[in-house]
Amino acid sequence: MFKIAQIACKLTQNHRIFYPIVQKTVLKQFILQRVRLENLRSPFNSKPKLLKINWNPLVSFKVTFALSILTWLGFNKADEEKDSELIMTLKRAVLCTQREQFETAEQMLHLALRIAQQQQDYQGILYCYDLMANLAFNTYDLDKAEKLFVNVLQLLLGDGTSEDDLKVIHISLKLARICQLKANIERADLGYRWCLEKIEHQRKVNEDSEILYGVINDWYAQYLLDVGDLPKALVHLNEAYKVCTETQGLKNEKSMLLLNDLGITSFRAEDYEAAEKYLREALALGNQLEDKTHLGVIHANLGLILLQKGVINEAEKLCNTGRKLDF
């Protein structure tokens, strides 16, 4: 019993925590009384809190939304393969971003923008602004990202692009996320619902629109979790998971992460059976993946659910395994 409490105390110091796992007073009461959590009668009684795997908005979008933005914004395959100064500079900027060399990436993008402006290359200018916006988004420079995304949106709409176009919906989704991160809840909610409305009638047009539909549901669910609307969050998480499995198959990291989120949300909704089910599925899936990066978090989450249910021995094993794998 004491070992589990020690593990939980160590987990609370980890940067992956979504909510504090257990209040210290709860842990103290738990250890002193040596009884199962569901039998506690202390006024300090509280549920343990689960871990949420770190979520980077830009990386998440890259994982789930497998589109070439170059092609999306008007470049074709031949353009991408050209060794022109503009294309090569853009490729270097993307490479620097992937390597997290953000200052160098920004310098390369400003250079690319000057080249595009000198060549009066509309698509090049558009793509430079889009990459700059994503870079600011990825580094959480939210004010800058918002201004740049608005610029891209204005360029697209000014060129006659329809509001129903995937490019417009995609950028609007990012603007909604920025509003959420800036705690502008009303605008964020309007933005997410607008994106859902626009994508709904065309979600089956092609795989790109179907994937975007899944991403919107995923991001909207994260927003709903933030504002505490658990029933709606579960609906949209389930929809995102369904789309993910349909478009990318069952065995992929994104499916595992969504199962983890479903487990967390079910736990917060006090549906412990569903929470355990989702986390066991996530664990089974994670064991089949080559990348074990997030497996420790899932072990810990399942362990804490079982701890809540009073399954002490298995909970202790899972929490210990989680600590060894990820902490």
UniProtKB/TrEMBL annotation:
Record flagged with keyword NADP: no
Localization: Mitochondrion
Chief subcellular location: mitochondrion
UniProt xrefs under InterPro entries: TPR-like_helical_dom_sf (IPR011990), TTC19 (IPR040395)
Assigned keywords, A-Z: Mitochondrion, Repeat, TPR repeat, Transit peptide
GO cellular component, one term: mitochondrion
UniProt record similarity statement: Belongs to the TTC19 family.
Protein name: Tetratricopeptide repeat protein 19 homolog, mitochondrial
Organism this protein belongs to: Hypothenemus hampei (Coffee berry borer)
Phylogenetic lineage: Eukaryota, Metazoa, Ecdysozoa, Arthropoda, Hexapoda
